[in-house]
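REQUEST FORM: STRUCTURE PREDICTION
Request ID: SP-0412
Submitted by: Lab K.M.
Chain count: 1
Length (residues): 404
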Amino acid sequence: MLILRLAWRNLLRNTRRTGVTVAAMTFGLWVMVLYSGLVAGYIHGMERNILEIEMGDVQVFAEGYQDDPSIYTRIEDPDAVLSALDEAGLSSSARLMGGGLAAAGDQSAGVSLRGVNVARDATVSRIHERVGQGAWLDPADPTGVVIGWRLAKALVIGPGDELIVLTQGADGSIANALYTVRGVLVTIGDGVDRAGVFMNEDALRELLVLPGGAHQIVVRKPDTMDLDAAVVATKAAAPGLQVMSWRELMPVLATMLDSSRSLIVFVFFIVYIAIGILILNAMLMAVFERVREFGVMKALGMSPRTVLTLILAESVLQVLVAMVLGLTLSLPAAWYLTNVGVNVGELGGMSVMGMAMPPIWTGLFDAETFAGPVVAMLIIVSAAVIYPAVKAAVIRPVEAMRHR
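STATUS: Completed
RESULT:
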């Protein structure tokens, strides 16, 4: 207790030196917390875009469909699979898929047709929230479609305009129908942006002359379930069908995200080293400026162990103050980055491996985001103070009092 009182008194005796040291640690902690939150938010945002917009956690196909997509290769009884997935605690929705040609006026383009159950699809995808113009699909409007923004630009159409779709029916006939554009999506990904046409499941089933079945079932897991468990549960609910996780469907993107985590750890190391040097300089200055003072203490009978304990006690007090200040100052910035984010401007119109980057970069701050930088700072400060503290403790009083 006496050591702590003496350490506190020493810190208050030279407020300038103490202020510089505490400021360096506070700034370092503040930077580490915000950097950790932004990085966590970036990775979380990329995964959320992949899973929530259209991909889902797991997808189910008829055997052979993924290798050679065809309107004839379909899941014969999707309702039974959906019921089994519901019982397993998984959200799911069946989709019809097809291809064709869309035309408006003198313009035409190849399109990817997607028939969705509006109610069920909202439980596995948030694409209905990404309508930039107009509105999403409505079961009460069977001829309404929603299209990608690049397709709308290529065909020079918008909400309220008519769209002709031509394709081949399952019976071998040439199918065509007239639809009305209900909405235009914002950036989703290259495939959807350039060719995506979404319509009600029954409308596409009628166009393709498909009496039953589905080409794809998209599955979302609860947050408490890991991906491997979701795959196992889906396989149990869909025997005889091909079940693939999003990591299997998009292996390059999954590898890229894993590599990003490794790269981020390396960048963390570089950032922490830079901050560690800043703190080390402050700690060295704080100790070496007082070598003569420590020499006097030892000449008066203070043991090397007591000198070492005193320096460590001062460091602990400074770290505690810096932690309180750093975490307190990071809270407003963390709130801003979480709720407002950073507008990355034109990057929002770009895509990575066919997946759109969100225009707003938000942070993700949780207990781990704050705990990691705090632990890192404790390690850095401990490493920074050991050398000067030991040197001050073992130096001879005569040498210390001659120190300049």
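NOTES: Residues 2-52+254-402 form one domain.
Reviewed by: T.R.
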